[in-house]
Write a structure and sequence with these properties.
Blueprint: E1 5-9, H1 16-31, H2 34-39, E2 41-45, H3 51-58, E3 63-67, H4 84-89, E4 94-97, H5 100-106, H6 110-122, E5 126-131, H7 135-139, H8 143-157, E6 167-170, H9 184-201, H10 203-208, E7 210-214, H11 222-226, E8 233-236, H12 243-252
Parallel strand pairs: 1-2, 1-8, 2-3, 3-4, 4-5, 5-6, 6-7, 7-8
Helix pairs in contact: 1-3, 6-8, 8-9
The structure holds 1,3-dihydroxyacetonephosphate.
């Protein structure tokens, strides 16, 4: 039985003040709903510079946290990058790898993403591999071709040990930040195909790997999307910046 996971990707948003308000809201909201944290894993991905603030606020709560990106190198002359060891200094337990914004805006390749998954997983972090097709690719019926290529690159290049705790987030690019969502049927179809692909590689892995849906998830649509048998929760962008929306999405995963 896979425990659902709802994670908030804050992207490049927030100030000390708004982060503080968001963290206060999460603490207060969850203190009244202790059961929720037992039934649903909850995580947030703040900008790296807020890691200490997040750690200070969430240490004794049920919420985990991680970074939105990490470097594949251990240390050294890599200006602007953050290492896995640095993430762990701030008690991060997860890291996103290959978010579509990293792929499209910063040129991350499948090989780069696989290397990030490997680095994070080897260090004991939970890598959250993001995959998804563009609108053009969906309209050309290439959804599974693209998603399979993205997943296979990781299965082929990352070490088996790094994949023990792997989470996959299916985020159709056309649904990210657009207000458009995949229908529950579209989401389930892709999730089931991803699980089939994993099963060809390793049946146990296919059974245990959580596959999240991301792309304009809101309190109002989360329950129907999460109802799919292969949908194990969500990766939430915009709505994760609002405590009430985020908590209602967490509840929908229960
Ligand atoms: P939105 O929920 O804002 O569409 O963003 C989804 C996303 O990119 C999460 O990683």
């Amino acid at each position: 039985m896979r425990k659902p996971l709802v994670a908030g990707n804050w992207k490049m948003n927030g100030t000390r003040e708004t982060v503080s308000a968001l963290l206060d809201g999460l603490q207060t909201g969850l203190s009244g709903e202790k059961e929720l944290g037992n039934k649903v894993d909850i995580a947030v991905f703040p900008p790296a510079i807020f890691a200490q603030q997040v750690a200070d606020a969430l240490t004794s709560t049920a919420v985990s946290w991680g970074l939105q990106n990490i470097c594949t190198e251990e240390k050294g002359a890599f200006t602007g990058e953050t290492s896995v060891v640095m993430a762990q200094e701030f008690s991060c337990t997860m890291v996103l790898a290959g978010h579509s914004e990293r792929r499209s805006l910063y040129g991350e390749t499948d090989a780069d993403v696989a290397a990030k998954v490997d680095r994070a997983g080897q260090a004991g972090l939970i890598p959250v591999l993001c995959v998804g097709e563009s609108l053009e690719e969906r309209e050309a019926n290439q959804t599974m071709e693209v998603v399979s290529r993205q997943v296979k690159a990781v299965l082929e290049q990352a070490s088996p040990a790094s994949l023990e705790k792997l989470v996959i987030a299916y985020e159709p690019v056309w649904a990210i930040g657009t207000g458009l969502t995949a229908t529950p049927e579209q989401a389930q179809e892709v999730h089931a195909s991803i699980r089939e692909l994993l099963a060809k590689h390793d049946a146990d892995m296919a059974a245990r790997t959580r596959i999240l849906y991301g792309g304009s998830v809101k309190g109002s649509n989360a329950a129907e999307i999460f109802a799919g048998p292969d949908v194990d929760g969500g990766l939430v962008g915009g709505a994760s910046l609002n405590v009430q929306d985020f908590l209602s999405i967490c509840r929908a995963a229960d």
